[in-house]
Amino acid sequence: MHRTEPNSSRAAWLVFAAGVCAALHVGKLPPAIATLREALGMTLVEAGFLLSLVQAAGMAAVLFFVGLGSLGLTDRDEGRNAEAGREMYETGNYISPTFNYEPRFAKPVFVYWLMSLSYHLFGVSEFAARFPSAIFGVGLILLQYLFLTRCRGPVVGLFGAAMLLLNLEIIGLSRMALTDSVLIFFTTLSLYGFWLGLYGEGRERHYLWFFYIGMALATLTKGPIGFLIPMLAVGLYLWLTRSWGLFWRHGFPIPGLVLFLLLALPWYLMMLNIHGQRYTTSAQGDTIGRFFGTMEGHGGTLLFYLPVFLLGFFPWSGLLPFAWYQAYRSWRDSKRSGALPPSQTSVLDVHPSPHALEWFTAAWILGGLVFFSLSSTRLPHYIGPLFPAAAILTASYWNRCVTDQATPGLRAAIHTITAVGCILALAFASLPPLYAKFAGKLIDEFPLAGQVTLGPGPYTVASVFLVGMGLIAYFGFSETRRPAVFWVAGGSLALVVLATTQLIFPLMHHFVIEPPQQLAEVAGVNLGPNDRLILYGQPRPSLVFYAKRKAIVVPKNEEANIKPYLTQPGRTMILLPAAFRNRLPFETMDYPVLLERYGYILLANQSLIHVPEEAEQPPVRIPGH
Questions:
Q1: Which of 110, 139, 146, 518 has its CA 20 to 30 A from that of 57?
Q2: Sign of CA dihedral 172, 174, 175, 176
Q3: How many CB atoms neighbour CB 327 within 10 A?
Q4: What is the pLDDT of residue 518?
Q5: Cβ-based burial of 620 (10 A; exposed 0-12, middle 13-18, buried ≥19)
Q6: Beta carbons of 578 and 601 less than 8 angstroms apart
Q7: Number of Cβ atoms within 10 Å of the Cβ of 314
Q8: C-alpha span between 286 and 108 (Å, rounded)
Q9: How far apart are CA 35 and CA 41, in angstroms?
């Protein structure tokens, strides 16, 4: 049948309206499908697939983009990254990143390229700094849906995309100016390309090129971890399934290595040519040194990532141990029964077991978790690249739970989800009294600690968790109502994110994050090229971003380093917590306080020339007073 090509603008609006309608009919056949079939000439399958895609993209866009620029940049990584991208945008130096106009070797260049492009499009702002993370986060959810739908069908595809979207870690990383969202996208692209290419036929084998392209771009995003995560997952899987021969025959290993080097290596060679031994020493410290030694106090035990996974992947983390064990058991049974190929020439290499995807994702999680646990430097967001695999494993397991009430571990998984949720509710409910007790220890980071309350936010979040866990228990232990658990768990997480962004973050922004940033912006407006801005106290890299100029950073207890700058000609400004005023050199005692904002002050040896309008606004009443 001949299809007429609809008007592109009308088609776009139809798809958008259908997506909204689909979102309101989750779990049922949306009436919009009939509209799409009639208006765009689609089959039922095509219309359903398109609507699910729009649903996934729409949910991701809402969670990642709404209010993206409303919170000031957090310290310290967001501030460093955003400023490095801004300096690249300002200077036009797209090869050697800088922070505070000094070479920055800690991260490769790709994220700074993205931020610089974002600044060109939207101007320099918090939204623009975070835009690459948000857009790659949306891309990751779509990639998850497309891959899983192709391999396991649209139902598991929707489960997997929603599980990857609706967890605390992925939402957080996709809303921050960090490298992790981009890294996760490229490592996931790499591994999905490997899977589709290895087991594809004909032209589908060309998906394998994405394996090498994804690793190269991930390496340009965050260094060696960009190829280590895919190689660990692939190597462990090929070893467990005895499929190395298949990869050597059909995986383009030599051309792929050449492609990887052509994409990833030139920038590293240019940096080596520009900076020489200084760059190699720093790069070794940020890679090998980070693995074998604790950096910046970020240590922990070998079990550090178990609670991180449990909380970061909540609510689906309750399903994950049982899903992983089921994958392991099916691999073990296949091995014992002789179903795994005894040699590399077996036809079973080309046609994998129906459980092979679960084996692959289980190996992906295990390899990455062991690697990160063995590293001496540990941070919660390091295991982000393992979350797509966790979402596939739990989505497949949950689909079995819904279709087969006798699935092993089902009731224990429901108990685990509700237990972790109740622990989180208790933790949030305990925040206000704990904060009141230990506020005095937060003075360096938060000068008004003890004077500002946390408001109703923590109790609201705790209530959402408790109600959600109650509903999960109610639905989960009923065979007929069990499918509703998925939507209740996802909805509870979405409400938690909404309550946090609307009730907790605005308070943090106004009284903790924004005050020194506002003063830094005033200083930047009033200082000339030969003047000086001194940032004294706890290091806050974001202040350089807001000042938009080079700053002299002097940590607490190093006040003597301020003296040489006080005798230089021109204007000198000092931004610091008000409580630290008496620590400054005697020569600054006659410096007047030009502006004060919630525990931070701006001193200067000369008066201000210009005060931005927002800095002149009267202060808001402090909660708790």
A1: 110
A2: positive
A3: 24
A4: 94
A5: exposed
A6: yes
A7: 24
A8: 11
A9: 9
Cα→Cα distances 407→27, 43, 47, 323, 390, Å: 22, 34, 32, 10, 18
Amino acid, res. 353: S
Quote the tokens at residue 206: 């060309």
Task: Kindly list the distances between the CA atom of residue 447 and the CA atoms of 209, 327, 515, in Å, as whole numbers in the listed order.
Answer: 52, 50, 10
| 453 token code pair | 């309350």
**What's residue 532's pLDDT?**
95
Neighbours of 84 (CB within 10 A): 26
Instruction: Report how far residue 596's alpha carbon sits from residue 516's, in angstroms, rounded to the nearest whole number.
Output: 9
346: helix, strand or coil = coil
Helix axes 126-152, 180-199, angle to 10 degrees: 20
Q: SS in 3 state form for 74-134? A: CCCHHHHHHHHHHHHHHHCCCCCCEECCEECCCCCCHHHHHHHHHHHHHCCCHHHHHHHHH
Give residue 616's pLDDT: 57
Instruction: In whole angstroms, give the CA distance from residue 422 to residue 112.
Output: 40
Q: CA torsion 258→262→265→269, rounded to 10°? A: 120
pLDDT mean by block of 10 residues, the chain; 625 residues: 42 43 46 57 60 78 90 92 97 96 93 97 96 96 94 91 94 96 98 94 90 98 95 95 88 95 96 92 77 70 89 94 95 84 50 87 96 89 95 95 87 93 94 84 76 86 95 89 90 90 87 92 92 93 96 92 91 93 91 92 83 58 51
The two beta strands, 532-536 and 552-554, are: parallel
H or E element that contains 435: helix 410-438
End-to-end CA distance of the chain: 72
H helices within 153-295, ranges in order?
154-165, 168-173, 180-199, 208-222, 225-241, 244-250, 253-275, 277-292
Largest CA distance in the chain: 87
Q: Return d(Cα 264, Cα 213) in angstroms, integer.
A: 9
Stated as kind and residue range, the H or E segment containing 510 is: none
76 upstream amide cis, omega within 30 of 0: yes
> Which residues make Cβ contacts (< 8 Å) with residue 328, sequence separation at least 6?
362
Burial of 582 (0-12, 13-18, 19+ CB in 10 A): exposed
For residue 315, say if its preceding peptide bond is cis, omega within 30 degrees of 0: yes
Q: Which runs of consecutive H residues, i.e. helices, occur in 300-339? A: 305-312, 320-337
